[in-house]
Amino acid sequence: MALIIDPIKDTTFYDSVRRLLGGVDEDVVTDEDISDPAILDMAEFKVLDLIPAYDPLTASAAEKARVRLATIHFVAAMLCPSMAGRVDIEVKTIDLSWKRKALDYEALAESLMAAGAELLDTEIGGDSRIFAIAPSRRGACAKRQNTFDC
After folding, report:
1. Which keywords annotate this record (predicted)?
2. Residue 106 needs a FRET pair 20 to 30 A away by CA distance; which of 5, 116, 117, 145 works?
């Protein structure tokens, strides 16, 4: 949908996602895997859900950069569950053998989500809903009826 990141114009985010996933190559995580609507669009919706007042037309360059970076973190976090099956831990050939250190992708996903949320925790576009407190039942009723006898 290209709400925050346009995968046709902005191709640098593909490498950023791969670096966040432990520096994997393009043959492990392809551009199509990253720009899949189930991944990229869902990450963008998650960001926009956390900052509903965000308007890219009125946002400053710094705010746009923060939102873009948070989206990249969320995309990488959403790819983490499939990474354990994609990455070869040990490769052996006739004349070469090497082992890659295994990553805890579950912990990595949690840290990426936390980093993305932290980027959005600033006052981007007004109040953030990351740490919102639900109104009390009496308060919600009073708003609806404009009285306090609910």
Report:
1. Plasmid
2. 5
pLDDT digit string, tens, across residues 65-111: 999 999 999 999 999 999 888 876 667 788 877 676 778 889 999 99
Residue whose structure tokens are 């710094």: 62
**Residue 4: exposure state from Cβ atoms within 10 A (0-12, 13-18, ≥19):** buried
For helices 61-86 and 105-120, give the axis angle rounded to 10 degrees: 170
Q: What are phi and psi of 81, to 5 degrees?
A: -60, -25
Task: Tell me which residue has tokens 């805890």.
Answer: 104
Q: What gap in Å lies between CA 126 and CA 136, rounded to an integer? A: 22
- Say how many C-beta atoms besides its own lie within 10 A of residue 31's C-beta: 15
**pLDDT value for 70:** 95
| Phi, psi (degrees; rounded to nearest 5) at 9 | -85, -35
> Which residues have CB under 8 Å from 35's CB, separation 6+?
7, 14
